[in-house]
Design goal:
- The protein has a domain of about 80 residues.
- Helix content is about 65%, strand content about 0%.
- The radius of gyration is 29 Å and the shape is elongated.
């Protein structure tokens, strides 16, 4: 949480400082032109690479392979699109870096080696051991009573509408 707060404060400050520095050197018009151009080019690149990654995800599902890597690449491309649409030089730089496949592979390898995802499951039933049951699963105890259906009408309204 503190890292997220730090990023939330640091990134806008970096962007403001870069806007002031670069805008002072090249002027307001060129600064705005660069920001708009990077947004347009970045959007086009995100669409192209997004299609390719979507095909890889579909192939991994159809071949029953692990879809983790193509899904991670898709998430990074989605993040790069958001960064490229955000006005700023720092966010554009990070966004364009995420569009480089080698950079994404390096980030993916780092994430895979350093991030641990664990799950937990809680059993809410009475018996935690299913070895004595031939089909496994939970046993649900209940009562029932038979209800005779009403005789069907052969003429008149169906009963679903009012007379």
């Amino acid at each position: 949480m503190p890292l997220l707060l730090l990023l939330f404060i640091a990134v806008p400050l970096i962007e403001i400082a870069l806007f002031i520095q670069i805008g002072g050197i090249i002027g307001l018009g060129w600064t705005l032109a660069i920001v708009l151009t990077t947004a347009v080019i970045g959007t086009w690149m995100v669409r192209q690479q997004g299609r390719e990654v979507l095909l890889r995800v579909q192939q991994s599902f159809s071949q029953l392979n692990d879809p983790t890597e193509p899904l991670a690449h898709g998430a990074m491309i989605l993040l790069s699109g958001a960064l490229l649409l955000t006005p700023g030089f720092f966010t554009d730089t990070v966004g364009f870096l995420l569009l480089v496949p080698r950079f994404r592979e390096t980030v993916f390898r780092w994430l895979r080696s350093n991030v641990s995802i664990g799950g937990s499951s809680t059993y809410t039933g009475f018996a935690a051991d299913n070895r004595h049951r031939p089909f496994g699963g939970d046993v649900i105890d209940g009562d029932y009573s038979e209800v005779d259906p009403e005789p069907r009408r052969t003429k008149g309204p169906s009963g679903w509408t009012q007379d």
